[in-house]
Amino acid sequence: MIDSSAPQFLSGVIEGFYGPPWSPAERHQLWDWMVRSGLNTYFYGPKDDLHQRAIWREPYDEAGLREVQDAVEGCRQRGLRLIYACSPGLDVTYSDPADRRAIEVRLTQLMQVGVSDFCILLDDIPDAMRPGDQARWGSLAAAQAQWVNEVYRWSRSGSQGRFLVCPTPYCGRMVAARHGGEGYLETLGRELHPDLDIFWTGPEIISETLELDPIARLTEILRRPPLIWDNLFANDYDGRRFFCGPYAGRPLGLRQAVRGILLNPNTEFPLNFVPIHSFGAYLRAGEGWDARASFLEGLEAWFRHFATVGAPLDYADLVTFADCFYLPYEEGTEADCLGQDIARCLSNPRPPSDPDSLAVRARMLRLKDFCARLVDLTDRALFHAVHRRVWDLREELDLIDRWWAHRIDPARAGSPFQSDFHRPKTYRGGFVPRLQSLLTQCPDGRFESVTMGQSQDSRA
What we know:
Elements: E1 10-15, H1 24-36, E2 41-44, H2 62-77, E3 81-86, H3 97-111, E4 117-121, H4 131-137, H5 140-155, E5 163-166, H6 172-176, H7 184-191, E6 197-200, H8 212-222, E7 227-230, H9 254-257, E8 260-263, H10 273-284, H11 291-302, H12 315-323, H13 333-347, H14 355-373, H15 380-408, H16 431-436, E9 439-441, E10 447-449, H17 452-459
Parallel strand pairs: 1-2, 1-8, 2-3, 3-4, 4-5, 5-6, 6-7, 7-8
Antiparallel strand pairs: 9-10
Helix pairs in contact: 1-2, 3-5, 5-7, 10-11, 12-13, 12-14, 13-14, 14-15
């Protein structure tokens, strides 16, 4: 059994998303949040840091190295472990000694400023091999295992910290599709040095649940418990959304079944307050775990960041708003109920004075007003982080409200509804919505094409 409170159990936050890396000031704020939540590990690996992937062979310049050293010192002062990641997989030649020397030069430079824990990321790359590598090893997993083992053994002369690997197929769906080749995980588990930790995201890249039986089977295949790279709160794949709900869909027994859990959260740093709070509560929980309660507790603490230059916002409205941006697979209770009630009222016309309809519209307008008033936040970083998403939500609520007002106005009975504020092409316009109109996704994940006439109508 693994003790999730022990130092060897890694619990923390991965800066590993696609998009602008966090600023040094944001990282210092993150580390303070992590300490308050009882976490122990910060993982540095933003995909769009050029040194991570595109120019992994090039040493840092003086300014870049100072930034790494600042992170090392910031984590050390707070008692946190810093893991530095490098992603050579896009263009590495495993049989080329020059590439081995390049990664050694990079790690040497980092060791000199105090980094002692490392990760080699081999995710999000093609699974094709160069001819020389194919001739030598015959499989991608065998080539990667030997290359990483050699780098790991070399690193032991200058560092005795943890060493991690993210495999090319890192979730169940990728393995089922034979990404990386037949028997990839079996080969990696057999040939990779037993001291190395191996990342896993679960059945999907963004996994709704992480169940214990699949983790137990994976542990047998890898010959070690996996280390969870949890993308539950990641939003880099959809710029319209963020996720500030609770850490959910993970049984408490997961803590004893893995070597650690690290969150790869929202790209926008200020939006991660509640997820980090809830994750820390999950790790400390005893026999019972109430995800919703941890969400509300974290939201109450986050509420102080919503101070405005005008009249104060209402906490109940923040709950409804946060429920609109809850988790990838679900809205929170208040938003889900509001959405169902709006749909019910719009699909079943009622008299203008109907109390139920009036109550639903009032709740909708409170949410719309809350969105509009976020422009007055004194925490401008938080406002900038939510601005685009708030704008989209407010515009949809405004359009529904205008339609609703038109429908209940006797003077406009029978006339078509149009909004002067939601014009064709400018509202929901552009090339991306045009492309999105060409394929319709079914609930089971299948895509179906739309006829030309339907597609044109949707753009009118």
